[in-house]
Specification:
By secondary structure, the protein is α+β, with helices and mostly antiparallel strands. It is built from 11 helices and 8 strands. It has 2 domains: 173 residues, no CATH class; 148 residues, no CATH class.
Length: 383
């Protein structure tokens, strides 16, 4: 059996001692590397037991632990602030920066909903018109678009096919009787008055009730003005009694799709997903004692895992007069449990510092303060 290298109890960190060299130039990292190596070796049993690792093994685990810590912290920052980070330049490093919440992406999302809800948006709404023919009920607006030279599909959003306003019939008692007074009112633009009006002082609620009655009567006793729109095929009710012009609003589908994809004018490109947020590896010297303590423990778990793999190559080793069974499986199990526990601990701590958690904590604190102050008796003023 080949001889297994045993840690000799000392180490001397130099630049190039880690696999990637992320932190080799960090003075604080270099100063801690040998201390971490001795810490891990001691926790693994040195000097009472042989530790089948070399200094480079501890350095590699130390580098991985720092990188893992930075990744977890930065992933949390990305999750917490992604709406503010999406669209920024990839050339803008965000390490060490305070990310101010931005409403820009929320406004852009709101514009999309505004377009669909007809309450704003950033898509141009177009107006079209066609002529209805007497007794013709169905019209193909796709054919209309082709005849008008409109390229691409259209989406009709509103059709202006409505009954005459109830206010006209409210002010003219002769409307619908065939006397022609309504025509006279329309021709001379009397507006809210007609020749058949006797003015009386009545409450506004009376006017509202009468208008509602006229509209309800139209729905129940008359063929209600309405339409059906399926795949831009328009079917109107009731049948047109005469030729008339019909207006409608529509969107161009290409305009709506153009707003989905947006090109970047930044030569370096803009952030389009979480993997493009320009976070770099953390600066080890900037990590506080709480973070470093987590890194030390995670380095130990990684070192234990590496040691388990080393000992797993040989299940037993010869000793004078017998063989010794190695604890590879126990080490591996302990290492994996410890790694998972540490990651859960860090993620829970980050979740507790999230903006939402902080606001909820402040709200609960405020409610508790109100309750306490409510139990404090007021001072009796003596004049």
């Amino acid at each position: 059996m080949a001889e297994i290298q045993i840690w000799n109890g000392s180490s001397n960190f130099n630049s190039g001692s880690t696999p990637f060299g992320f932190y080799d130039t960090d003075i604080t990292f270099k100063a801690d590397a040998d201390k971490v190596a001795r810490f891990c070796a001691t926790r693994l049993g040195y000097p009472l037991m042989d530790v089948e690792l070399q200094s480079g093994s501890f350095y590699a685990c130390f580098e991985e632990a720092v990188t893992t810590y930075g990744n977890e912290v930065f992933q949390y920052k990305v999750r917490e602030n992604y709406l503010s980070l999406e669209g920024i330049s990839k050339a803008t490093p965000v390490n060490g920066k305070i990310i101010e919440p931005s409403l820009q992406r929320i406004v852009e999302i709101a514009n999309t909903y505004g377009t669909e809800a007809e309450v704003g948006g950033n898509i141009t709404k177009h107006t079209g018109s066609l002529y209805l023919s007497q007794s013709v009920q169905e019209y193909d607006l796709n054919d209309w678009a082709v005849k008008e030279g409109i390229t691409g599909s259209i989406e009709v959003r509103k059709v202006y096919y409505e009954a005459p306003p109830a206010i006209q019939r409210y002010f003219d008692p002769y409307v619908g009787t065939g006397t022609g007074v309504q025509s006279l009112m329309d021709a001379f633009d009397f507006g809210s008055m007609s020749p058949g009006i006797n003015f009386m002082m009545m409450p506004v609620s009376y006017d509202v009730a009468l208008l509602q009655g006229i509209e309800f009567n139209d729905q129940i006793r008359r063929s209600h003005y309405s339409f059906e729109l399926t795949n831009n095929r328009l079917k109107i009710f009731p049948l047109p009694k005469e030729d008339r012009k019909l207006r409608f609003d529509y969107y161009k589908i290409d305009d709506k799709r153009a707003g989905v994809l947006r090109e970047s004018n930044d030569p370096a490109g803009t952030v389009t997903n979480v993997g493009e947020v320009p976070y770099e590896n953390p600066t080890y010297a900037d990590i506080n004692s709480i973070g470093r303590e987590w890194i030390f423990r995670y380095t130990l778990a990684l070192s234990k895992e590496v040691l388990a793999y080393v000992r797993g190559k040989y299940t037993t080793v010869p000793v004078p007069g017998s063989e010794a069974t190695l604890n590879q499986q126990d080490l591996l199990t302990d290492a994996r449990i410890e790694k998972e526990r540490l990651l859960t601990e860090l993620r829970d701590m980050l979740d507790q510092t999230s903006r939402q958690s902080q606001l909820e904590r402040k709200a609960n604190e405020g409610d508790s303060m109100k309750k306490i102050q409510g139990d404090v008796p007021m001072v009796i003023y003596v004049g």
